[in-house]
TrEMBL record, chain A:
<dbReference type="Pfam" id="PF00005">
    <property type="entry name" value="ABC_tran"/>
</dbReference>
<dbReference type="GO" id="GO:0005524">
    <property type="term" value="F:ATP binding"/>
</dbReference>
<feature type="domain" description="ABC transporter">
    <location>
        <begin position="6"/>
        <end position="229"/>
    </location>
</feature>
<keyword id="KW-0046">Antibiotic resistance</keyword>
<keyword id="KW-0813">Transport</keyword>
<dbReference type="InterPro" id="IPR027417">
    <property type="entry name" value="P-loop_NTPase"/>
</dbReference>
<keyword id="KW-0067">ATP-binding</keyword>
<dbReference type="InterPro" id="IPR050763">
    <property type="entry name" value="ABC_transporter_ATP-binding"/>
</dbReference>
<dbReference type="InterPro" id="IPR003439">
    <property type="entry name" value="ABC_transporter-like_ATP-bd"/>
</dbReference>
UniProtKB/TrEMBL annotation, chain B:
<dbReference type="InterPro" id="IPR013525">
    <property type="entry name" value="ABC2_TM"/>
</dbReference>
<protein>
    <submittedName>
        <fullName>ABC transporter permease</fullName>
    </submittedName>
</protein>
<keyword id="KW-0812">Transmembrane</keyword>
<feature type="transmembrane region" description="Helical">
    <location>
        <begin position="226"/>
        <end position="244"/>
    </location>
</feature>
<feature type="transmembrane region" description="Helical">
    <location>
        <begin position="57"/>
        <end position="76"/>
    </location>
</feature>
<keyword id="KW-1133">Transmembrane helix</keyword>
<feature type="transmembrane region" description="Helical">
    <location>
        <begin position="173"/>
        <end position="196"/>
    </location>
</feature>
<dbReference type="Pfam" id="PF12698">
    <property type="entry name" value="ABC2_membrane_3"/>
</dbReference>
<feature type="domain" description="ABC-2 type transporter transmembrane">
    <location>
        <begin position="51"/>
        <end position="240"/>
    </location>
</feature>
Length: 303, 251
């Protein structure tokens, strides 16, 4: 088994009474593109800080390529783009990117980094005169100044317009295709859905769900079945359907959420019903995500 | 590789300092203005009591040292505290740059602006105030005031890391005034009571002023002063490098 790119073993981190990271175990494997999802305050940023050695865990160990985060960074294995990461002022964009290249043990040529980040045209501007989206691209350039094996991105597309966002993810996919591990935290759930081959849902410092986007959706009962019935609707019978997680009936229209749409639909016919206008659709990750975190909040409240 | 990396940052920091015209101007003008102001009260022939030093010479060394100290201490602590708040230091910590590379680059960028400040005070003193020294004394004075100021540049880095936000300026000011006055940069040290002199003798500013005053009198700087300054430099720079690595302040 290859060394994991990232390994969290029973990691805890508290700020006063708040457990920002609560007993997290996590392995990221080389070549994975992983989305870190969670509402505000879920512990995403703290998790990334621990991973980068900007903070130390209260207990447990964080390893990056089998060593400490600081050492992995010194070896040029990690590139990161943080929300809280600022830029040096009073210098030109090109000078700053050149600095990042000079500091990187496995640097790319400056011109190439500028091109990939789409900042060739603003290379001679002063850093403190940039717009938010431009700043974000400069940050991206700093994070990808060299051949990193692991790329960490904290809400990278904040402030980018749609075109830039698309070209950004195209570059990121390229990186992943070259066998790099990409971990990104995001608020844009469709991004996680479209880009990540693994989604980790964090909630109150714990890993709530971990799997492919499809698995996460399934976990939340994330297929929706809608059909109309002729005649009386027997709600009690419908409630007994297998794999059903939610049911709502309005008039003759039945809406069901199911973790196994195939089996549930089959059972509808098994009841001797004849559903018309049958539709089976996947829920977006967003609804799945809300369903999972809501369930966890309710569970905690019940305790 | 790491040395090379530090070199890149040093170069960029120097470029930045030179580009910052306002900061340059202030740093260069301030010590000269102070020197002219303070020395105007005494004539070219005045002597420091109980010594064979001219008042003008004494003030020249004091103000050149004081000006350099002001620039590096204020310049570094405030700029670094600001960089920390903006998150640049966080970003920099995600590179392979070692902690000492950061501290050295900050000291180097300050050293580029203090050298012209020192030279200009000396020029004004020589041309307008009739200060007359041997060639070796000019060279030695320039070098020792310049090199000595790096101790305070390191202190500035350390302060920039210890304090943040609104606290930086007052903390820097307190340290700055205490060090300048007690170290004898403003007035002859002998005006203090004995107990204060005993404490002041261990201050880096005392040793710093001592370098210049030894050269004024035609001596080589005292070994004690040099060792004391080197010790302070190691403590300040080492502390600053440690703080750089451990700082976890969030923006």
């Amino acid at each position: 088994m290859a060394i994991p790119a990232v390994r969290f073993s029973r990691v805890n981190k508290s700020f006063g009474q708040v457990k920002a990271v609560n007993d997290v175990n996590l392995d990221l494997h080389p070549g994975e593109t992983v989305a870190l999802l969670g509402p505000n305050g879920a512990g995403k940023s703290t998790t990334l800080d621990l991973l980068l050695g900007l903070r130390n865990a209260d207990s447990g160990t964080v390893e990056v390529f089998g060593t400490t985060p600081a050492r992995a960074i010194a070896q040029g294995k990690v590139g990161a783009m943080l929300q809280s990461g600022g830029l040096m002022e009073e210098v030109k964009v090109r000078e700053l990117v050149k600095l990042a290249c000079d500091l990187h043990p496995k640097a790319y040529p400056v011109q190439q980094v500028l091109e990939h980040a789409g900042i060739t045209e603003i290379a001679d501007r002063m850093v403190n005169k940039l717009s938010g989206g431009q700043e974000q691209r400069v940050r991206f350039a700093l994070a990808t100044a060299g051949a990193n094996d692991l790329i960490i991105l904290d809400e990278p597309t904040t402030g980018m317009d749609v075109t830039v966002r698309q070209s950004f993810w195209a570059t990121m996919r390229q990186q992943a295709a070259q066998g790099r591990t990409v971990l990104f935290a995001t608020h844009y759930l469709e991004e996680a859905d479209a880009i990540a081959d693994r989604v980790i849902v964090l909630h109150r410092g714990r890993v709530l769900a971990d799997g492919s986007a499809a698995e996460i959706k399934a976990k939340a009962g994330a297929r929706r079945i809608v059909f109309d019935l002729d005649g009386e609707v027997d709600e009690a019978a419908l409630r007994g359907l297998p794999f059903l997680t939610a049911l709502s009936v309005s008039g003759r229209t039945v809406r069901i959420q199911s973790t196994d749409a195939d089996a549930t639909t089959h059972a509808v016919y098994g009841l001797g019903l004849y559903p018309r206008n049958l539709e089976v659709a996947g829920l977006g990750l967003e609804q799945a995500f809300i369903a999972i975190t809501d369930a966890a909040t309710a569970e905690e409240a019940a305790r | 590789m790491n040395t090379l990396a530090s070199g890149a940052l040093i170069k960029l920091e120097i470029t930045r300092s030179l580009r910052n015209k306002k900061f340059m101007f202030f740093t260069v003008i301030y010590p000269v203005a102070l020197f002219l102001l303070i020395s105007s009260s005494s004539s070219k022939a005045d002597m420091i009591p109980h010594s064979h030093l001219s008042t003008q010479l004494y003030y020249m060394v004091g103000m050149a040292s004081f000006g350099a100290l002001t620039a590096v201490l204020m310049g570094n602590s405030e700029r670094i505290a600001k960089e920390r708040e903006k998150g640049w230091v966080r970003q920099l910590r995600l590179t392979a740059l070692p902690g000492h590379g950061y501290v050295i680059s900050k000291i180097a960028s300050m050293a580029t602006v203090t050298l012209p400040a020192i030279v200009i005070v000396e020029l004004v003193a020589a041309l307008a105030k009739g200060v007359d020294l041997a060639a070796w004394q000019w060279a030695a004075l320039t070098f020792s005031i310049w090199a000595g100021s790096m101790v305070f540049a390191a202190l500035g880095v350390a302060i920039g890391y210890t304090a943040s936000g609104d606290a930086v300026r007052p903390i820097t000011m307190i340290i700055y005034f205490a060090l300048s006055i007690l170290g004898g940069l403003w007035m002859p040290f002998t005006v203090f009571p004995q107990w204060l002199q005993n404490i002041a003798k261990w201050l880096p500013t005392y040793a710093y002023a001592g370098l210049g005053h030894a050269i004024e009198q035609g001596d080589a700087p005292h070994l004690r002063d040099i060792l004391l300054l080197v010790a302070y430099l190691l403590v300040f720079a080492g502390g600053a490098a440690w703080l750089y690595r451990k700082d976890t302040l969030k923006a």
